C-alpha cells in the first residue's frame, strides 16, 4: 500500500533535540509499533481519558504539520481534548515547543501513520471532530493514489466519529478538494454539515488559523476549499 507521506530524514539540531526530549515526555503518546517506525500495533488502544482535562469533546487533527492549527485551537478551547497525529518528527517537536510556550495542556501528540490510528488505536465513536487541513496534494496523476483522503479513508473516519461528529477538510488543490467532496457526497455514512452551501463547499472554518501552507497556496493564486460533513447516525 502506498503511504501518503514521504519519509524525510531531516534531523533536529542538538538544541532542538534536547528540548524535544524534555517535551516529548509531556506531550507525546507512547505508541507500540507493528513493523515500521510509524506503524501502530493493532492491539493498541489510545486512552483518551488520559488526555487532559480527561473528559469533554475530542478533536483529532491528522497531518498536523508544525502544529499551528492544533495549538491555537487547544489554547482557545481548554475544555476540549486535542490529539494531533503526524509522522514528521521535526513537526511534532515544533508543535510541542509551541504548546509548551503557550502553556497548552489539553493536547497529546501521536507519531504514527494516521489511517492506522483511525483503524484501531482510537476507540470506535470517540471523536467529535476529525480535521484534515492541507493534506499533501500529490498533484501528479501517477501519485494521486497516495492521497490520504480517499475511498478507503472514509470508513476509518466513520468508525471513530460519534454520530453527528464532523469531518473537516481544507485544501488549496482544487482537484483534491473536488475528489473528496464527491466521495463524501456519495458516502451513505456522511451528510452535509449545517453550514455547507448548495454546491457542497463549507464556509471557511473559523476555528482554523492561517498556516504557512494556506498562505503559500493563496499567494500562488489558488483557492482554498473547505468541506464539513457530519457522520450520519448509526442505524
Ligand atoms: C502539507 S502538510 C500540512 C500541515 C498542516 N495541516 C498545515 O495546514 O499546515 C501535510 C502533513 O501531513 C503529514 N502526513 C501525511 N501523511 C500522513 C499520514 N499518513 N499520517 C500522519 N501524518 C501524515 C505530513 O508529514 C505533513 O506534515
TrEMBL record:
<protein>
    <recommendedName>
        <fullName>tRNA (guanine-N(7)-)-methyltransferase</fullName>
        <ecNumber>2.1.1.33</ecNumber>
    </recommendedName>
</protein>
<feature type="binding site">
    <location>
        <begin position="211"/>
        <end position="214"/>
    </location>
    <ligand>
        <name>substrate</name>
    </ligand>
</feature>
<keyword id="KW-0808">Transferase</keyword>
<comment type="similarity">
    <text>Belongs to the class I-like SAM-binding methyltransferase superfamily. TrmB family.</text>
</comment>
<feature type="binding site">
    <location>
        <position position="172"/>
    </location>
    <ligand>
        <name>substrate</name>
    </ligand>
</feature>
<comment type="pathway">
    <text>tRNA modification; N(7)-methylguanine-tRNA biosynthesis.</text>
</comment>
<keyword id="KW-0819">tRNA processing</keyword>
<feature type="binding site">
    <location>
        <position position="113"/>
    </location>
    <ligand>
        <name>S-adenosyl-L-methionine</name>
    </ligand>
</feature>
<dbReference type="InterPro" id="IPR029063">
    <property type="entry name" value="SAM-dependent_MTases_sf"/>
</dbReference>
<dbReference type="Pfam" id="PF02390">
    <property type="entry name" value="Methyltransf_4"/>
</dbReference>
<keyword id="KW-0949">S-adenosyl-L-methionine</keyword>
<keyword id="KW-0489">Methyltransferase</keyword>
<dbReference type="GO" id="GO:0043527">
    <property type="term" value="C:tRNA methyltransferase complex"/>
</dbReference>
<comment type="function">
    <text>Catalyzes the formation of N(7)-methylguanine at position 46 (m7G46) in tRNA.</text>
</comment>
<dbReference type="GO" id="GO:0008176">
    <property type="term" value="F:tRNA (guanine(46)-N7)-methyltransferase activity"/>
</dbReference>
<dbReference type="InterPro" id="IPR055361">
    <property type="entry name" value="tRNA_methyltr_TrmB_bact"/>
</dbReference>
<dbReference type="InterPro" id="IPR003358">
    <property type="entry name" value="tRNA_(Gua-N-7)_MeTrfase_Trmb"/>
</dbReference>
<feature type="binding site">
    <location>
        <position position="61"/>
    </location>
    <ligand>
        <name>S-adenosyl-L-methionine</name>
    </ligand>
</feature>
<feature type="binding site">
    <location>
        <position position="86"/>
    </location>
    <ligand>
        <name>S-adenosyl-L-methionine</name>
    </ligand>
</feature>
<feature type="binding site">
    <location>
        <position position="136"/>
    </location>
    <ligand>
        <name>S-adenosyl-L-methionine</name>
    </ligand>
</feature>
<feature type="binding site">
    <location>
        <position position="140"/>
    </location>
    <ligand>
        <name>substrate</name>
    </ligand>
</feature>
